[in-house]
Amino acid sequence: MSEFEAYMQKTHDLLRKYQGMADGHQKELAVSDGLDERRKTILENKYMRMLSRVDEYKARIEFSRPEKEDDMQERLQIIKDFPEQVAQTVPEDLPLRFHGTNLPATRNILESGEISSSVDRKGYETSYDVAGQVSVTSKDNIRITVDGYCNLSGDYKMPAGCIFVMLPKSEEEAKMVSSLMMENVNFREDPERLFAVITTKENVETVGKWMQENGFDARKSCSYEEFIKDFDRLYQIHNETQTDKEQTSERKTERSVDDAQQQSSATKMQVADIVRLGKGGNTGM
To answer: What is the rounded radius of gyration, in angstroms, for the C-alpha atoms of the chain?
Structure first.
């Protein structure tokens, strides 16, 4: 048995283990009517956490592949160089925020169209997130994201994760550089806030495909190297997205004005008809 085959066998074994534990918690919940609320909440959290482990190992089975030497070297180089490159490349007046996650979660985010707190999605905290907010870094402390949140090191049989590059919702949020938090982000409502999705070379095409399938601009999927070398191109794409949103908003406003004017004209015509009919009735009497 090869090393990778052994790895996959262990992954399947762990999936069965966690699925069994989740099933056990589910059975307990089914007969929990007599429990006090505190005990029931603890049981629900255990069940939800176990479901998360089940999802994690299902994803490992779906995405795992044998280790690749060039991929490992790329990831180690990213860890070494990328934080400093970002600090030197991103302009001071562009308040980009960075949110790292694994590859399966990247797909989930693009399918749902938003990055939200684990508390909001699952009912319990899985990181430093609190209700209504997600953890982020800035160009000055992006090493936190690179080192710990996008699966660049450790398990090289799983493809590396991604970094979502975003813009704050407001000037006030942009000033909160040191908080490491920002409000949940809905990219369907605010597509211009998605600046880029950075991943390793292996994943760029896959992430771009997911973006296209879910209505996002696939040109925003880039490698770590491309983010640095093609930053100006990404910034231009961002400006195009911003312009598109402004033009869409203007068209909606124009349609609203036109609809209101048409409604007003129709109302005036109805009033004129009523007056005309009223005059005709008086003459006949």
So the answer is: 26
- The residue with greater pLDDT, 278 or 198, is 198
Give the residue carrying structure tokens 């600090």.
Answer: 87
Is residue 247 exposed (0-12), middle (13-18) or buried (19+ Cβ within 10 Å)?
exposed
37-63 vs 3-30: helix axis angle to the nearest 10?
A: 160
Q: Which residues of 166-187 are buried (b: 16+ CB within 10 A; e: fewer)?
A: bbbeeeebbebbeebbbebbeb
pLDDT tens digits for 26-59? Answer: 999 998 888 889 999 999 999 999 999 999 999 9
Task: Write the CB contacts of 48 (distance below 8 Å, at least 6 apart in sequence).
Answer: 122, 123, 124
3-state secondary structure of 196: strand
Residue 134, beta-bridge partner list: 182
Could you count the other beta carbons within 10 Å of the beta carbon of residue 255?
10
Looking at 136-230, list the stretches that DSSP marks H as alpha helix, in order from N- to C-terminal side. Answer: 143-148, 171-174, 204-213, 224-229
Task: Please tell me the pTM assigned to this model.
Answer: 0.83
Q: Work out the angle between the directed axes of helices 204-213 and 103-112 (0-180°, nearest 10).
A: 20
H/E element holding 8?
helix 3-30
Sequence spans of domains, the chain: 3-63, 69-238
